[in-house]
Amino acid sequence: MFITRNCQIRLSVNEPDWLPPPSSPIDFCYFQKEHLNQVNDLLQRCFWPSIDVSENLLFPDFSVVAMYRRLVIGCGFMTPEAYITYIAVAPGWEKSGIGQFMLYHLVQTNIGKDVTLHVSANNPAMILYQKFGFKPEEFIVNFYDKYLPDGSLGCKNAFFVRLRR
Asked: Organism's domain of life (predicted)?
């Protein structure tokens, strides 16, 4: 047995009545101002420096943010014209269904419109997009050249993919 900082008595893992602490759910919500710093940080770590999605605060219906407690662990953004600008899941949270749920939400936001996006040629998310029915329409050499910093090892080539409705 041990005592936590707020003086609650807890059983040790070795005791027969021990139960793991309750886990917190993953919550999904629209993008709000209080998410901005964490979202920009996540996107800059996943893609390239200097990303700022503050303009997406004008269109919260075209966004989704995944939260674990108060931590942003994923986000996705789309334009009103049904172009997905960003979708990212924090390292360590991959393959937990977060990306799939966010993509589903964004696709459902624009029923009746084709949904499009660019994806790096070596991005494993391409498998997820294909499961949703996205089809590659174009291969673009050096698409990300203007975004990636000099000396970046990131793939500069992209596929333009479309989900036809």
From this structure: Eukaryota
